[in-house]
Design a protein that fits this description.
about 600 residues, single chain, 6-stranded mixed beta sheet, alpha+beta
């Protein structure tokens, strides 16, 4: 009993301390806090902290930096840097760019420092492997090294035709969010311009699969140089850290130009901070003289490397541990957002800058992973729909004019976050109201200008520009026709999630799809009681097929993307049915159709 009382008292003390911490927080830049806004070279209005910090931690222009004899870091040609090591009769390259074009420029830079051929390519992780083939004349002459999961990860990404997702069926939505995060719907110049490059889609690639995968701690001698590989601690990207004892060099993808992104607004699986921290520990314990990084400027000098690496690791640890402390103190996710205090000495580490993601968005992701969505607020157990809530609250406040007026006052008083919350109530009721859209856009814009993180800035500005009709972005980005046609059975499986349970609740039928251009391979869907079960081998299924659809992969692409109806495909002879035609058409009508004209989250401005 005494132990329980002690624990209870400890938690009260923790909660009291956390409450004091919340009350002592500096004024947020989104709620009237002082921020110096400046113009970037392309005219973008931005928090001055960003322009002061970025040159310290990233290569903003094409750069080749010699780090020691036979070691160079090449940056500024891609989102990723490339490390080059000169061996006895060839070169070892760590990371290869993400497209043929990027790799071409990297190759030209390499040829300026050495005339030796590239004989070994090592991938830090899956993202920067797609340019490798353009670095060399004959891929057969190159040893390509990667994490044991490298090939599988890259191939799954290419096959999926969109952004990788824990659940690939939602890839089209994830792709849209990735494009927003990487500035694809923002202008390149002007006050609302993007900071940093845009994500290049559809450009030619030259992926070389790893011909040698390595295990944690494995050592290889390559071109007269010993390398040791570390794979144990890895993110969902399957990082490969490399130690070169002779050069006292570590090459890695754990040390970033900005606080580690425990959660990214585009969405994704939980990123365990402990794995990231322990990956950094491996590097720290090697005590390198030189640290080269996938995204961050290289660092030289053992003392400098240790100071920055340790400070970086410690801030990650602090965010994680203080989030858990807050959870034990009874804080909700909303309260946790504002409860993380970063000591000044950690803020002095350039790479700890919040230039990519911002720490305010991380604690809630940890909370969700540990506890789930329920934050102990029982009033949320059966809360009403957001639009219904908005209508009731606006009425309670005194009508939409009062809410709009209060939001305008918040804008004038630089309480942008509060103004955005207010105007959202009216926006939910009238999403095409011009005055409401313009006010919401300006509130979001002012928050975006004050962001240090490129990710929240991109989401805020993209929505502001879309509300004003200056840009638009799709809610879904479907896979390309080539990707669907390459694996039609995969997309028959994905088609199942588009079933409308109201239309299909009284149905119990099996459709078999036979792909005539794939050796008459067959898969199926069992539509029953509101769901559609995927059948990988119809011949082995317990229920006999009711209808058979014979078609080629290109026709399935058109059906999947709703660019042709089943009826029209039948009339053109591209689909041959076994069974009652009208019944099969009715079954297909139970599935949602992709409608490009309605493919938006923010409705277009009405004429």
């Amino acid at each position: 009993m005494k132990t329980i009382i002690k624990i209870f008292i400890s938690l009260i003390i923790i909660f009291s301390a956390l409450t004091n911490c919340l009350n002592a927080q500096e004024k947020s830049p989104y709620m009237g806090g002082e921020v110096e806004l400046v113009a970037a070279p392309n005219g973008a209005i931005v928090n001055s902290e960003v322009l002061n910090t970025m040159p310290k931690i990233t290569y903003l222009e094409p750069t080749t930096e010699k780090l020691t004899d036979g070691v160079w870091c090449i940056g500024g040609y891609s989102l990723a840097n490339t490390t080059v090591i000169e061996g006895d009769d060839g070169l070892i390259v760590y990371d290869a760019g993400d497209t043929k074009e990027e790799a071409k420029h990297i190759r030209e830079a390499i040829e300026k420092v050495s005339d030796k051929p590239i004989k070994v390519i090592i991938y830090s992780h899956s993202h920067y492997s797609l340019g490798a083939g353009a670095l060399v004349d004959n891929p057969d002459d190159v040893l390509v090294i990667g994490h044991p999961k490298l090939n599988e990860t890259v191939e799954a990404s290419l096959r999926g035709g969109g952004s990788p997702s824990a659940i690939p069926e939602v890839g089209p939505l994830m792709t849209s969010r990735v494009l927003i995060q990487f500035n694809n719907f923002m202008p390149t110049e002007g006050e609302d311009a993007a900071l940093g490059g845009k994500l290049e889609l559809g450009k030619p690639i030259a992926f070389l699969p790893a011909t040698k995968t390595v295990q944690d701690g494995e050592t290889l001698e390559l071109l007269g140089i010993e390398l040791q590989f570390f794979t144990k601690y890895t993110s969902d990207d399957y990082n490969l850290t490399v130690y070169v004892p002779e050069k006292e060099l570590v090459m890695n993808n754990f040390f970033w130009p900005g606080t580690p992104n425990i959660y990214t607004l585009r969405g994704g699986v939980y990123r365990d901070p402990l794995i990231w921290r322990d990956g950094l520990k491996v590097i720290r314990d090697l005590q390198p003289e030189i640290l080269t990084n996938t995204h961050t400027r290289a660092i030289k000098g053992k003392e400098e490397v240790m100071q920055r690496l340790t400070g970086y690791m410690d801030q990650l640890t602090l965010v994680y541990d203080q989030t858990l402390r807050g959870i034990l103190g009874g804080l909700t996710p909303d309260e946790l957002r504002h409860a993380i205090y970063i000591p000044e000495h950690m803020q002095e580490i350039p790479e700890n800058a919040q230039t990519y993601g911002e720490i305010i968005h991380f604690p809630e992701a940890i909370y969700q992973y540990v506890i789930g969505w329920f934050d102990w607020d029982v009033t949320k157990l059966f809360e009403i729909a957001s639009k219904d809530e908005a209508e009731r609250l606006v009425k309670l406040i005194g009508g939409k004019d009062k809410v709009i007026g209060a939001a305008k006052s918040a804008l004038n008083e630089r309480e942008f976050a509060w103004g955005a919350q207010l105007i959202q109530y009216v926006y939910l009721m009238e999403p095409t109201n011009k005055e409401v859209r313009e006010l919401k856009a300006e509130l979001l814009r002012q928050m975006a200008y004050r962001c240090t993180g490129s990710i929240p800035r991109a989401f805020l500005l993209t929505e502001a520009l879309t509300l004003e009709g200056k840009t638009s972005y799709p809610k879904l980005v479907p896979p390309s026709a080539e990707v669907i046609a390459a694996s039609p059975e995969t997309f028959v499986d994905y088609f199942r999630v588009r079933i409308d349970p109201k239309k299909s609740e009284s149905t119990d039928k099996v459709i078999e799809f036979v792909f005539t251009d794939k050796g008459n391979s067959a898969v199926g869907l069992h539509i029953r009681g509101g769901i559609a079960e995927y059948i990988p081998v119809p011949a082995d299924y317990y229920k006999e097929t009711d209808y058979t659809i014979k078609l080629d992969s290109d026709t399935w692409v058109a059906l999947y993307l709703s660019s042709v109806s089943l009826k029209d495909a039948m009339n053109s002879g591209k689909v041959v049915l076994t069974g009652n035609n009208s019944e099969v058409i009715a079954l297909f009508d139970m599935f949602d159709k992709f409608q490009p004209t309605k493919n938006f989250k923010i409705p277009p401005i009405e004429d």
